[in-house]
Amino acid sequence: MQTADIRQRWLDFFxxxxxxxxxxxxxxxxxxxxxxxxxxxxxxxxxxxxxVPAPYPRATSVQKCIRTNDIEEVGKTPRHGTFFQMxxxxxxxxxxxxxxxxxxxxxxxxxxxxxxxxxxxxxxxxTVYKDDDEAIxxxxxxxxxxxxxxxxxxxxxxxxxxxxxxxAGPCSEIFFxxxxxxxxxxxxxxxxxxxxxxxxLVFMQYLIDDVxxxxxxxxxxxxxxxxxDTGMGLERVAFIKQGVENMYxxxxxxxxxxxxxxxxxxxxGTNHDDDVRMRVIADHVRxxxxxxxxxxxPSNEGRGYILRRLLRRTIRAMRLLGVDGATFRELFAAxxxxxxxxxxEVAHDYAHIEKLALGEEETFLRTLVAGTSxxxxxxxxxxxxGREELAGDTAFLLHDTYGxxxxxxxxMAEEAGLAVDRGAFDELMTAQRTRAKADAKSKxxxxxxxxxxxxxxxxxxxxxxxxxxxxx
Length: 472
Ligand code: ATP
Ligand code: MG
Ligand code: MG
Ligand code: MG
Prior knowledge:
Its EC number is 6.1.1.7. It is a single chain. With 472 residues, the chain is of the alpha/beta class. It has 16 helices and 11 strands. The strands form 2 sheets. Strands 1, 2, 3, 4, 5, 6, 7, 8 and 9 form a 9-stranded mixed β-sheet that branches. It has a two-stranded parallel sheet with strand order 10-11. The site of adenosine-5'-triphosphate has 16 residues, from strand 3, strand 8, strand 9 and helix 6.
């Protein structure tokens, strides 16, 4: 089952059940407190919190997401991408727990021939918040799930709130069991890769306040209008349905991985470290492609910095695969071709995207070799002197002169068995920022002087009267 097919089945299923189909919002979220759209619910937050009345009682979407907090997991677990698509169904004061559970179960277990996703009910487990007896009863009643495949978990994993006073509620997550070849038979609570979380159902049920942590808050009362927010990982379902090992091997991602293998002359599936690198490359290239298509450009700040990190991490991974030259032309073209049927804009804007990618590659390739040799020398010296921490000024030099994102230096130092003096690095960064600010201020002064001319311009065109005035 192709990823596009799963996406379409999802949208058709929920559209046929009264949900308004809402197109994906940009990866660059409207919410200034969020760098990126991290979940399907983000564009619906005003409706879910009741700030704005929802224009429809039910909605569904396939939302593009970026999660930078998963970057370290990429390529190592089978299920974490920095970019992924979250299929969601939402109810704004309309159906609640029973409806959400019934829809999820129906879509998952209806045979493929009848438009469903064709999961075998025997392979599915659920977790519920430990005190949510109502959800447990519903899973038994609606889905016929036996007690053994319903696990009670605590607030750290199975409760949702924003960290602010407002709506909150228990979650129930649905897992696919990959079988004994992947681990012991303990259910999702064992938290290993045998059980893959595919779908999270959030039951927004209470108003809370006094929130001091994820697990510590006070329930004020039940919400008069309860909401449903769900998220199913499209890539996770795709990798299971496509019978491959992980989300980097699905139709939308694998072509990039294959390209990386081809360019390096190494074979995927023969060496664990190389495999992780190829998966990282496939993930990061796709994420970068999608970010640039949503208007993000590499820079040293904010969103652009995340993009820069992804791009530079990709270049380094290619180097670790033994390729020193440029590869972005081939890698990005492969990702474009794999993504363009779902997102035609990546082909439409490709000239611009490629220009940004190649520019970044050229800049970093110029300094990567020199920077790496500086790092290697510093690592050797640090070890020789018996210290366990790389000096902060080395990390700063690498950042400032060689364009190494600090995270990259941390990663490379760790590979060599060293930590980095992060405190000293941060101090140097702060000092540099202060200098830059002072600099900008003094420049501003000059600009302020020049702005006097702006006032004249604002009055309208000045007419030169010198000739006439002087002669009269
Ligand atoms: P996990 O515990 O596996 O990290 P999560 O609990 O953080 O997942 P949710 O926040 O519940 O994930 O997101 C809803 C769904 O989105 C998940 O059930 C999963 O299918 C999918 N998903 C979440 N994070 C990722 C990711 N980094 N890459 C791919 N799919 C993801
Ligand atoms: Mg997670
Ligand atoms: Mg989880
Ligand atoms: Mg979850």
